[in-house]
Every structure is written in C-alpha cells, then in structure tokens.
Amino acid sequence: MSDTYDLIVIGGGPGGYVAAIRGAQLGLKTACIEMRETLGGTCLNVGCIPSKALLESSHHYFRAKHEFAGHGISFSDLSFNLADMIKRKNEVVSGMTGGVEFLFKKNKVTWLKGIGSLVKPGLVKVTAKDGTAVDYVGKNIMIATGSEPIAIPAAPFDHELICDSTDALNWSSVPKHLVVVGGGVIGLEMASIWSRLGAKVTVLEALDKILGPMDRGISTALQKILEKEGITFELSTLLESTKIKGASVGLTAKKDGKTVEFEADKVLVAVGRRPYTERLGLLDAGVELDARGRVKIDTHFKTNVPGIYAIGDAVQGPMLAHKAEEEGIAASEGIAGKAGHVNYEAIPGVVYTWPEVASVGATEEDLKAKDVKYKKGQFNFRANGRAKAMGDSEGFVKVLADEKTDRLLGVHIIGPNASELIGEVAIAFEFGASAEDLARAVHAHPTLTEAIKEASLGVDGRMIHS
Ligand code: NAI
Q1: Within 13 A of 234's CA, how many CA atoms are on the CB side?
Q2: Average pLDDT, stretch 40-50?
Q3: Atom of ligand 1 nearest to the CA of 184
C-alpha cells in the first residue's frame, strides 16, 4: 500500500516549499517532491540568491575601484579573487538551502527525493536517482515545478561558450568579451556582475528598449547609467545565428534590416524562461495546459482535474519567486478550507542592477494604452539628502495616480536600494492608498524614502525640494 498524504507538492522551489510548510502548519500531512540534491529550487540554488551574492560582491569591488576615492578613501593594490567570490556565493546558497531542509523537519514536511510525475489523478510517482520508483497517494497534488531557461536554435547551449544563467554564476575566469543575448532581467543582472569585474559586455536586445515590460522612462535611464559604466547596448537587434570558432563565438544578428556581427569569448543567452510542465505526466492525468505550456488554473489555483492544483512559474503571471510564494500559501490555505488570496495588483518587480529598479503597478505606457487619465509626480534622488550623503544620487521615483480619485496606479523607482524602497509602495497598494496618503505619511529624515514622499507630493504639483 502506498503512503498517503493530504498534500503532495511537486517542486521544492519558493512556491513549492512555502506551500508545503503552510500546508503542514494547517495540519495537512504534507510531502514535497524535489529532484535536486538541495531544496529551494531555481531561486535559491541557481537564481535569485546566488546572483544577488555575486551582484553584492562585484558591487563592492566596483565601488572600491571607482567610488571610494570620492569619499576620501584611497588604497593601493585593489584586487579580487574570483574563486573566493564564487565560494562565498556557494556558501550563501548552501546556508539557504540547508535552512529550507531544517524548516521541513521543523514543520514535519516529508521531502521525497526524486523526480515526481503524475500517474493518474490522486497518484504520484517518485523516481529516485538510482531509478527506483515509488507511488504515493496524494489527496491533493500541487504542481510547483517552476521554469527553465528558453533555448533558442540561433544559439544552442554548449554550456562552455554559449551559456545559460546557471553557467554564468560559475565561470572560473572573467570573460574578455561577453555578449549577452536578451536585455531582460537576467541579462542585465549578469551583464552587471561581469562588467563590474572587468569584462567588456555587449547586450543584444530584439526590442527597442531594455527591460521590455518596465516603464520606458526607467528603462532609458538605466540604459544610460549602465552605458556610462561601460556596457554596450545593441537595441532592435535580433540574434540570428552563432558559430563556434575554437575558443570564441561568432554571432550574426539583424539590426534595422542590416546584418551585424559580433565576436565573443562567452555568450549568455537570457531570452526568457518557460514553464517546466513537460515530463510530469500532466497530459496522462488529463491536466490542461495553455498554448504557452502553462498549467491552466482557476482563481483558486485549481486545474481542470479535481484535486490537482498549480502555482508559480508553471502557471500564468510574472515569473517571480514572491508571486510563487504567495500563490503557494493561498493554494494550501484553500486546500485546508481557508480563504487564501493573492493581490495581483500589488506585486513588486525588482531588477538588482545598480542603481536598482523596482516598481508596482501600471507603467505610463500601460495607462496611455488603456486611455486611463493619470497625474504624475517625479522626484530625482539628486535632491534627496541621504542619497547625496551616500554619494549615490542617480535615479528618480515616479508616482502615477488616477486623475480623479488620486488612487495609486503605478510607482516606479530607479535608484539606490530601490528593492527595499518598493516595500512601502507595495503596502500602499495593498491598502488601496492614494498619492496623498503617501505624501502625508511622515517619512524619516534623512532617508531615501523621502523621495517617494516628494514624488507623491509632485502628483499634486507641490514638491518641496524640487
Ligand atoms: P525576460 O523576458 O525578462 O527578457 C528576455 C529578453 O530577451 C526580452 O527583452 C526579449 O526581447 C529578448 N530576446 C528574446 N529573443 C531574442 C533574440 N533572439 N535576440 C535578442 N534579444 C532577444 O527574460 P529573462 O531575463 O531571461 O528572465 C526570465 C524570467 O526570470 C523573467 O520572467 C524574470 O522576471 C525572471 N527573473 C526575475 C528576476 C528578478 O526578479 N530580479 C531575476 C532573474 C529572472
């Protein structure tokens, strides 16, 4: 007789492991299937956490090299040891993944190690590394299998010269010329790391702007700042083919109808991720997918098959760890008979370049396209005392509010610590705040948050410091 669980979560990433912990907290006998050697999924193992560790290290080096002198600090013999940087990154990762394993034990979640797939509704097979397979009965089954990098025929991965983001977290030397295909979130974060460490970096982007879905004002500002730091951008440039020539790669692309060529010693392909929904037996179990391979769900994360749920990158919506976590929690709460809910209007998006970019809500382009009348306030960090004191005053905050009701519609930040600043904005959205609410709230002085207050005052044309 197979073991029976109230909830079996397939996938131990931020969506899945959080869902499993929440399910166990609510008294469900819960198991989580994970095929990696460690828990935490893409985010903890090869995504958010390791990239942030390297972004932090490379930023320290960059600041020491280019900015400390401005603070009156001088020294000689500045250098870095890449192996040590990577080692530190790996230690950060293992600390985090080990932490999830501890949380599983604490919450009595069983980790079923191996590849999970559906045999039929209510029955899951776990195939271990040695090939042995065991079936488990799941009264409820949650697909939380995440996503994987998209491979394009124009640049097939060999993981040596043509790499994905996982490879780019472990290079043993700094590339001389790195060509990044895709000016999205991953492309820009990786371009930042390697450029700061001394690589010449060229970003090829098919669209006419980097960070496609972000507010155009923000993406233009970020591009200019990154260009000043030495990154080259080739916009409206679609990669067509690559050719490996010994230790380098020749790239051919189309730019404004013309053929352009590049030569690189490393290529990073970061053209998006696709849901990991194949090889899971979903079709055998009768679970419907949409045209983009995502599991179709209703507003309660239920698939068309009773007892099977799906969340995170495997379903529609932004591929973000925090979105997956909230969905996992809400789905488990629903399974346990509670009323889980995710507010999709208040999901922050962050790009961890420097300056950082962070936003919640609609862009100006979105509002114009929908013919929504809005008011706008914009405040530059160069008029913010704390930013000046930090010596980090590039960027701005843009607040967009409904012309009639003043309700916040979108807030976009490019600036120091934008990833942390966006927290107050997400809360404001959660509470349905107006720009006036943000403008009237007392913000400590001197802090970067005052820029949000000022931009909110700007919606009403009454900024004090600009
Ligand atoms: P993305 O969708 O953000 O960007 C991919 C870019 O590649 C697009 O701008 C696209 O126009 C361009 N592109 C596609 N094909 C091309 C070609 N042949 N030639 C030139 N350009 C081409 O995807 P990315 O950066 O790979 O990230 C994947 C997912 O991971 C995203 O959904 C992102 O939200 C998530 N992520 C989030 C992070 C964060 O929250 N900080 C960090 C890393 C990833």
Answers
A1: 22
A2: 98
A3: 4
